[in-house]
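If you are new to this repository, start here. Below is one unmodified record pulled from the training split, so you can see the exact layout before writing a loader.
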Amino acid sequence: MNRTIHNQSRVPTRPTAGRGKSGSALLAAAVLCLSPFDAARAQKSDAGVVFAEMAYRRGAWFNYFGAVGALNGNIDQSGFLVRGMAIGGIEKYRTIGADPADFDRRIAKGEVGVGHQWVLPGATVFAFVGADYMSVSLKPRDDSDTSSGQKVGAFVMGGISTAIHLPYYAEVTAKYSTGNEFYWTKGRLGARFGGLVVGPEVELSGYAEYDEKRAGAFISGLKLGSLYFDLSGGYAWVESRNPNRNYGGDSAYGTIATVYRF
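And here is the target side for that same chain:
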């Protein structure tokens, strides 16, 4: 799966206003891993966010859509959170041997979770637990593919990001799901330029079929109306756990994500 099913993962963050306050709970919003959006001029408390992301590399594309809400009505304060996300996409592979063939693995996934965030003077820390459901179908049929079918699992995820008043940005997020033994972790370092954050990112992910490593760069804090955007790109190294399958090999990757606060 792509990095967030695998992406999950990209966590949209938008820190609160004022010095001494940390990045907000949007850090827990998704499996997205967005850098903090500069909301220093926000005048009202927001109860949550809606987020979406598109991610692509050679042989795989995925779409993500979800929301996170704060039970205390303020996404920028410490408290309990609820989160839901839906994921859909396709990844391709080719069998290796005397009679090679191409297959499309079509993936649909949903997950719900509850968690808590701690807004500290210099950082925001979050943790989630929840359940996920995944449906995998193949076209054409491949009886040797043990990842197909429907699976229900449990997941845990957590992370930490630095506060907005600091001149630099750092973030680490990780997730593990029992469904297909999926793992994902991502780290970012960035420098602030006004409302923008720019810097490098690295990512490790994998599940029953393959492992993937990524290294690239990101820019976040782009704003269009009420929407905040995060762009990233770089290079991905894919290593199949099955010697008889090729999952597209090494290639460039790109993602675009957006967040709306409500």
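Two things worth knowing about this chain: The radius of gyration is 18 Å. The CA atoms of residues 120 and 200 lie 25 Å apart.
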